[in-house]
Design goal:
Number of helices: 0
Distance between the termini: 40 Å
Oligomer: single chain
Shape: globular
Order of helices and strands: EEEEEEEEEEE
Structural class: mainly beta
Number of strands: 11
Length: 124
């Protein structure tokens, strides 16, 4: 079992930055990939970014590429998402998740464990 706890969300203005964190515990070493997803009201949960625990390979959704950076520490106890140049369309609940399925998956059902989410609101 993996436990994930997100923090760092808040209300910011367009153009501002936020840094989200996800504290991990439990059987985290079984995870191959860690990722961030988001879900806006009335919309489906969508992929934001992912990082491979071994090697640190990253992938990003086109909508955040160049603005967001995913990172993790080598002890696998912390996952972060640095969000710069935020836009109102980035407003959503952000979730961190782990996957034991391997690398390259971006669909939510490929991820096994989820945090409770943290709200990010970007005003125009």
């Amino acid at each position: 079992q993996v436990q994930l706890v997100e923090s760092g969300g808040g209300l910011v203005q367009a153009g501002d930055s936020l840094r989200l964190s996800c504290a991990t515990s439990g059987r985290i070493f079984s995870a191959v990939t860690m990722g961030w997803f988001r879900q806006a009201p009335g919309k489906e949960r969508e992929f934001v970014a992912a990082i491979r625990w071994i090697g640190g390979t990253t992938s990003y959704a086109d909508s955040v590429k160049g603005r967001f950076t995913i990172s993790r520490d080598n002890t696998r106890t912390m996952l972060c998402l640095q969000m710069n140049s935020l836009k109102p369309e980035d407003t959503a609940v952000y979730y961190c998740a782990t996957s034991t399925a391997g690398w390259g998956f971006q669909r939510p059902n490929a991820f096994n464990s989820w945090g409770q989410g943290t709200q990010v609101t970007v005003s125009s």
